Amino acid sequence: MRKKILFVFSRLYYGGAERQFRELVTHMDKKKFDLIIVETGNDEDAGLVRQFEQQNQDIRFYYLKDTDFISNSKKKFAREAIFIRYILQMYHVIKKEKPDLILAYNGLEISGSWLFCRLGAKVVFSERESGNRGKRKLKRYKWLFRSVDKIICNSKEAQRYYAENGISSEYIPNGIQCCDRLPLPDKDWYIILVPARITRVKNQKIVLNALSLCENKNYKVIFIGKQEDKEYLEELKQLAQNLNLEQKIEFLNFTNDIQTMYRNCNLVILPSRMEGCTNVLLESYLYGRPCLVSNIIMNRDVANERQEFFETDDAKGLSRLIDMCRQKKESEWRDILESNHQYVIDNFSVEQMVRHYENIFDRL
């Protein structure tokens, strides 16, 4: 008899976590596992959701009503009302489906773990960040974890943090769908891609400040990602205007065709102050793009040798690295890019990630 697994998605299309779990449910062995997806939020592009459903007709989908935790995460009373609606609707889904195991990755959604256990399901929590949310939230999470059967971290830093606080976990890094390395583009303009949600922790301002210091001004920069923080987005646009960069900058929202964005760029920059498992760095390696990343432990944990880092507040240092990348000839990049590509295939494939999750699901 197939083991029944229920995945709780905050949204099907939002960021890196959602992409990872879409890959997971798509590639899991359907002969061994019966899969259910519950979505608690509201996707902006309903067409993408319908397309995903059509491509995965062997998965059952449930869409909860008025339970969008992401949009209301900072509204205390709205959040509490949403949680009650979430619990009531999850109760009916679980009673109907009777899953053996439930996986969630959002802290508010895992707050229902006590109910899931009472209804006979084992619970897995997937930590997608560093784990360190402060002492107050640590106490809350420790209380929640009493009803959790397994914690999975997608970064070594999160696993270290949990271990330091007496919490046992397993490490499963993100998986990247492998493909051939893309040739570097031959364009008049030097295209720089900054793929990250527009939010302060992603630290996009340093990129604008660094670009204003670069020697060669013949570039275009594409910031692409969910425009989560509208106030911060306006600050970025104002800074670009103040630095006379507005003609060189483009802000794009979420795309489901990230490979095309990598194909058309010369350089990738990830300036984050915090990451989980650094998908952008691994994708850059896979597609064969030079990548500059911030010097944070999460990036260092997954980086290949010869990776270049910059400090999160050092715009001048980042500008020097951008100029250095521009000056390198394609022949000088070849060995580095080939090594990076093989590094992802050997250590971060989707197949490896799926196998690790399936082994845990089998053991529980």
Describe the structure.
The chain starts with a strand and ends with a helix. Helix 6 links the parallel strand 6 and strand 7 (170-171). By secondary structure, the protein is of the alpha/beta class. The strands form two sheets. It has a seven-stranded parallel beta sheet, with helices on both faces. Helix 7 (205-211) packs across helix 12 and helix 10 (279-287) crosses helix 13. The protein has helices spanning 16-27, 46-55, 76-97, 113-118, 135-144, 156-164, 205-211, 230-242, 258-263, 279-287, 297-302, 315-327, 330-347, 350-363; strands at residues 3-9, 33-39, 60-63, 101-104, 122-127, 150-153, 170-171, 190-195, 219-224, 249-252, 267-270, 291-294, 309-310. The chain has 14 helices and 13 strands. The mean pLDDT is 92.
Biggest sheet details: 7 strands, parallel
With strands numbered from the N-terminus, the spatial order across the biggest sheet is 3-2-1-4-5-6-7
Strand content: 15-25%
- Poorly predicted ranges (pLDDT <50, ≥5 residues)? none
Helix percent band: 40-55%
Principal-axes shape call: globular
> What is the tally of helical segments?
14
> What order do the SSEs take from the amino end to the carboxyl end, as H and E?
EHEHEHEHEHEHEEHEHEHEHEHEHHH
Overall residue-averaged pLDDT value = 92
Structural class: alpha/beta
Distance between the termini: 15 Å
By DSSP, the count of extended strands is 13
**Rg computed from alpha carbons, rounded to a whole number of angstroms:** 21 Å
